[in-house]
């Protein structure tokens, strides 16, 4: 007898017929048949989000609103979240948004600057019988203060804040901070301070019947805004208040107050800086840069250097700007060796010196006439593949011409195109001045004409240098020719231009031309200076008539000489009684001016 089963086996038939009855008798929960929906991991992909949303609304039974809230809250694309919310409302499914849903969408509207629609959601919240909470009002306040250039919105945000308090909704630190930030960014620092004071004292029994706990972020915003608007004393008060409330200042509050104090009381700023370091707050590099700059500006190089050493011990890596500033200060005092030590320290600390740093060193060596060492720095730059700039060349050309190396300067100048550099007006001024001082006036004149022919626009300083060189070499007529062409180039002579030409005419005995220029400069509103008068005095001339002429022109044209010229005029006119009335005119003109 065989035991092989067949499709027509009665045993098999019995079992198959009994399956429907077994299913009915032992029904399984649908949650065991359909897996619980899980939020997708890749929520940054809009297609994935939309697919998951469609999956949720097709599930049976429909998932609770909390699942949809979870999805809406996780969507980084605000516009997409709004679209999904609207789609949810239009599905006619047996699912109702709750307060959390409305808060999420209200926040989305405010984030995309649709504050009006945000207030519309607030209306829906109230209509549905929900009680708006702190999250609701904070989102509205954030949306109002986010709109730039709208004072009405800022004031409305304050009203919303006060309204929530009246309705018994207690704001938290985020609500308060959002409003303070908005007021400060809108430039309403005074309003922000008054609002802060009201909040801190519980409204003084007026509108705000509570005390809101401010945090370091709020204080930092207020202190920073006060310092930026010059109200450093008030910022100090808030800084002290923060201490009293046992709120530890952070880098922003310390840095803001240090910057505010630095230009008023550098010593107090220094004290506060060291207080910050002692409390373990890491200094901002920008603050260190500022203090180093101010120490150097006031000649307090030892303190600037000490600050460098302290930052090194604290592990704060400074920027090239700080090193550059200290090096420049040392160079100004002629302490090139100390500047070189700063340079070495910079390299040792892993900071790559740029062209500006090298320019500072080159300029320092040129100022003390150690041109060979300046050239060595230049060659080191090139070896390190640091491209020089026009300032580099201007400085080295100045050094070469100072020591009389005209040929070397010419060769160096010719190298500029190698680095794709175009000479500036300052470059030509350096060359022309240097050529003239080294008695290469004709070469300078040829250079000037070549530059003009190439269409290069030069400033009046360049022509002053050329005119000065020509006059000093005895070529006054050529200098006069250059002078007469200035107006055609759109240039206006300065007191330096006039003084050079007057000095040249006086030196060659052409006093009538000197007098003519003197009157011309006054008529053109250009006041002579002591150097101008000295040009006449060196010829033994009585310049009191010229002083009288200047006084008359001052009264007519309101020409104002500088302090040294006024002192000379007063001294000359007071020596002779017959000039007393002109002295009185001078004093009166100065008082009126």
Estimate percent helicity. Answer: 55-70%
Helix count? 33
Alpha carbon gap, first and last residue: 137 Å
Largest sheet: none
How many β strands by DSSP? 0
Structural class: mainly alpha
Rg calc: 40 Å
User: How would you state the average pLDDT, rounded?
Assistant: 83
Shape: elongated
Strand content: under 5%
Low-confidence stretches: 1-34
Explained architecture:
- The structure is a single chain.
- By secondary structure, the chain is an all-alpha fold.
- It contains 33 helices and no strands.
- It has helices at residues 10-25, 30-33, 46-58, 65-74, 78-89, 99-111, 115-127, 134-146, 151-166, 173-185, 189-200, 216-228, 232-244, 251-262, 266-278, 285-297, 301-313, 320-332, 336-348, 355-367, 371-383, 390-402, 406-414, 425-437, 441-453, 460-472, 476-484, 495-507, 511-523, 530-537, 544-557, 563-573, 580-592.
- Helix 14 runs antiparallel to helix 15 (266-278) and helix 27 packs antiparallel against helix 28 (495-507).
- It starts with 9 loop residues before the first helix and ends with a helix.
- Mean pLDDT is 83; it is low at 1-34.
Give the topology.
Blueprint: H1 10-25, H2 30-33, H3 46-58, H4 65-74, H5 78-89, H6 99-111, H7 115-127, H8 134-146, H9 151-166, H10 173-185, H11 189-200, H12 216-228, H13 232-244, H14 251-262, H15 266-278, H16 285-297, H17 301-313, H18 320-332, H19 336-348, H20 355-367, H21 371-383, H22 390-402, H23 406-414, H24 425-437, H25 441-453, H26 460-472, H27 476-484, H28 495-507, H29 511-523, H30 530-537, H31 544-557, H32 563-573, H33 580-592
């Amino acid at each position: 007898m065989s035991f092989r089963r067949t499709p027509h086996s009665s045993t098999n038939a019995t079992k198959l017929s009994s399956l429907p009855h077994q299913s009915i008798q032992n029904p399984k929960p649908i949650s065991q048949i359909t897996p619980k929906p899980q939020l997708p991991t890749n929520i940054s992909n809009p297609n994935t989000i939309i697919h998951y949303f469609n999956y949720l609304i097709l599930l049976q039974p429909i998932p609770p609103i909390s699942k949809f809230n979870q999805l809406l809250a996780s969507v980084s694309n605000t516009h997409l979240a709004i679209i999904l919310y609207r789609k949810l409302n239009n599905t006619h499914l047996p699912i109702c948004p709750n307060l959390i849903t409305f808060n999420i969408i209200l926040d989305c509207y405010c984030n995309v600057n649709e504050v009006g629609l945000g207030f519309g959601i607030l209306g829906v919240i109230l209509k549905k019988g929900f009680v708006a909470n702190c999250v609701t009002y904070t989102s509205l306040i954030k949306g109002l203060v986010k709109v730039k250039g709208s004072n009405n919105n800022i004031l409305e945000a304050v009203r919303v804040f006060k309204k929530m308090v009246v309705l018994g909704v207690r704001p938290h630190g985020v609500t308060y901070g959002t409003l303070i930030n908005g007021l400060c960014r809108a430039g309403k620092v005074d309003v922000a301070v008054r609002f802060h004071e009201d909040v801190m004292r519980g409204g003084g029994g007026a509108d705000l019947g509570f005390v809101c706990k401010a945090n370091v972020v709020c204080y930092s915003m207020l202190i920073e805004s006060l310092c930026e608007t010059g109200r450093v004393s008030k910022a100090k008060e808030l800084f002290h208040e923060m201490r009293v409330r046992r709120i530890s200042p952070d880098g922003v509050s310390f840095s803001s107050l240090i910057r505010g104090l630095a230009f008023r009381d550098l010593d107090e700023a220094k004290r506060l800086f060291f207080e910050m370091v002692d409390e373990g707050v890491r200094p901002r590099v920008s603050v260190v840069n500022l203090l180093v700059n101010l120490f150097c500006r006031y000649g307090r190089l030892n303190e600037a250097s000490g600050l460098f050493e302290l930052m090194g011990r604290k592990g704060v890596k400074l920027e090239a700007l700080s090193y550059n500033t200290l090096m420049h200060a040392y160079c100004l005092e002629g302490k090139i060796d100390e500047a070189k030590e700063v340079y070495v320290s910079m390299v040792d600390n892993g900071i790559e010196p740029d062209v500006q740093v090298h320019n500072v060193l080159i300029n320092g060596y040129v100022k003390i006439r150690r041109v060979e060492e300046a050239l060595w720095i230049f060659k080191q730059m090139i070896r390190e593949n640091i491209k020089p700039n026009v300032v580099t060349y201007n400085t080295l050309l100045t050094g070469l011409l100072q020591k009389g190396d005209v040929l070397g300067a010419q060769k160096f100048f010719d190298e500029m195109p190698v680095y794709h550099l175009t000479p500036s007006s300052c470059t030509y001024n350096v060359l022309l001045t240097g050529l003239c001082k080294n008695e290469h006036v004709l070469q300078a004149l040829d250079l000037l004409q070549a530059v003009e022919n190439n269409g290069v626009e030069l400033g009046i300083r360049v022509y002053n240098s050329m005119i000065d060189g020509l006059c000093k070499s005895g070529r006054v007529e050529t200098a006069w020719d250059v002078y007469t062409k200035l107006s055609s180039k759109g240039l206006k002579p300065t007191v330096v231009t006039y003084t050079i030409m007057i000095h040249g005419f006086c030196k060659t005995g052409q006093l009538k031309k000197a007098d003519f220029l003197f009157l011309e400069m006054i008529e053109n509103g250009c006041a002579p200076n002591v150097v101008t008068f000295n040009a006449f005095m060196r010829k033994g001339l009585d310049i009191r008539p010229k002083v009288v002429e200047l006084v008359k022109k001052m009264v007519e044209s309101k020409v104002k000489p500088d302090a040294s010229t006024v002192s000379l005029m007063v001294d000359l006119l007071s020596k002779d009684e017959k000039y007393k009335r002109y002295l009185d005119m001078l004093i009166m003109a100065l008082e009126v001016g």
